[in-house]
Automatic annotation (TrEMBL):
It comes from Alistipes inops. This is DNA polymerase IV. It is found in: Cytoplasm. Its main location: cytoplasm. Mg(2+) binds at residues 8, 102. Its cofactor is Mg(2+). Keywords: Cytoplasm, DNA damage, DNA repair, DNA replication, DNA-binding, DNA-directed DNA polymerase, Magnesium, Metal-binding, Mutator protein, Nucleotidyltransferase, Transferase. Binds 2 magnesium ions per subunit. Monomer. InterPro entries: DNA/RNA_pol_sf, DNA_pol_Y-fam_lit_finger_sf, DNA_pol_Y-fam_little_finger, DNA_polymerase-Y, DNApol_IV, Rev_trsase/Diguanyl_cyclase, UmuC.
Length: 357
């Protein structure tokens, strides 16, 4: 039986804006533009209470929530935070299937820590996301992707829902048909017209009837009504680096303290790389100052770094070049990457036999 986790960040874009601007906390926020043709890209939970949703026109959103505050999207920031979250996922398993910047499936049936409990893994991931980004995530844990996806939405925000194999069919039977993944408003209205309002109602219909009314999707509805989903988690990202970042409780301005933090971080990175049998040629140091200014420094070796002493010396060398004139440091990150040569085929001259004239 597989162990699948679905992680979904809570109001991702809007939560980042509220995190970075204290004046927006507790206020209904929409990411987007408030102009005549503006559209809401994302809405905070405060805004959602007024019925504001993504893809809604700004005019309609303001009509529902006159106090709505619009902020422009910062996709570079969202992508950076997303990368940090995805790196946490890959620390547990390489079987990660991102769906967007803020959600992904993880198959942790076999995982890097040999942890038997997917629920404990999900809890640990949510804790690490909060510590690393200041954001909350909701998680669903179950035996397949369909159930995990529904479960992650069951106790939002900042929730964790587990659906065991024994509970699966009863859980699905009690769902409203609108809660089924892939059933939108139009399909739900058609099902209501057929007397299908819950998972139990859907389960009463034959596969042939559902295919007749809904085409190929009818096969999926038939299986989902029985809590069946045979899709595998399909990773679409090749690991290019292994790293670790630490955000300090208090900003650090003393070189000696930074060196101690770097040594601890280097040990963690090397441990993670060893657990994955990962080798790279490039060591990268990331520094974020107290004013959120960020710099990176890297060193690339001609061959793979296979000794911890070599990795540590390179990391310390990069740190020695960091100037604290810009202020104290709030975040230090270290990674090893550039593994591409491992997959490069051996190349040689092709030979052809030409017929003699």
């Amino acid at each position: 039986m597989r162990k699948i986790i679905h992680i979904d960040m809570d109001a991702f874009y809007a939560s980042i804006e509220q995190r970075d601007n204290p004046r927006l906390r507790g206020v209904p926020v929409a990411v987007g533009h408030s102009g005549e043709r503006g559209v809401v890209a994302a809405a905070s939970y405060e805004a959602r209470r007024y019925g504001v949703r993504s893809a809604m026109s700004s005019r309609a959103a303001l009509a529902r929530c006159p106090g709505l505050v619009f902020v422009p999207a910062r996709f570079d920031v969202y992508r950076e935070v997303s990368h940090r979250i995805m790196d946490i996922f890959f620390d547990y398993t390489d079987r990660v299937e991102p769906l967007s910047l803020d959600e992904a499936y993880l198959d942790v049936t076999v995982n890097h820590y040999n942890m038997p409990s997917a629920t404990i893994i999900a809890s640990d991931i949510r804790r690490r996301i909060r510590e690393a980004t200041g954001l909350t995530a909701s998680a669903g844990v179950s035996v397949n992707k369909f159930l995990a996806k529904i479960a992650s939405d069951y106790n939002k925000p900042d929730g964790l829902t587990v659906v065991t194999g024994e509970e699966a069919e009863a859980f699905v039977e009690g769902l409203k048909i609108e809660q089924f993944w892939g059933v939108g408003k139009v399909t739900a209205d058609r099902m209501h017209g057929m007397g299908i309002h819950t998972g139990a109602d859907l389960k009463m219909r034959s596969e042939a009837e559902l295919v007749w009314h809904f085409g190929k999707a009818g096969h999926t509805y038939y299986l989902n009504a029985r809590a069946i989903d045979n899709r595998e988690v399909t990773p679409d990202r090749v690991r290019k680096s292994v790293g670790c970042e630490n955000t300090f409780f208090a900003d650090i301005g003393e070189p000696e303290m930074l060196e101690r933090e770097l040594r601890a971080t280097a040990e963690e990175v090397w441990r993670r790389a060893g657990r994955r049998d990962f080798y790279g040629r490039t060591v990268t140091l990331k520094i974020k100052y107290s004013d959120f200014r960020q710099i990176t420094r890297s060193h690339t070796f001609p061959g793979f770094v296979t000794e911890y002493g070599q990795f540590l010396d390179a990391s310390l060398g990069l740190l020695s070049g960091v100037d604290l004139i810009y202020g104290k440091v709030r975040l230090l990150g270290l990674s090893i990457g550039n593994p591409a040569d491992l997959e490069q085929p051996q190349c040689g001259q092709l030979e052809f036999d030409f017929p003699e004239e």
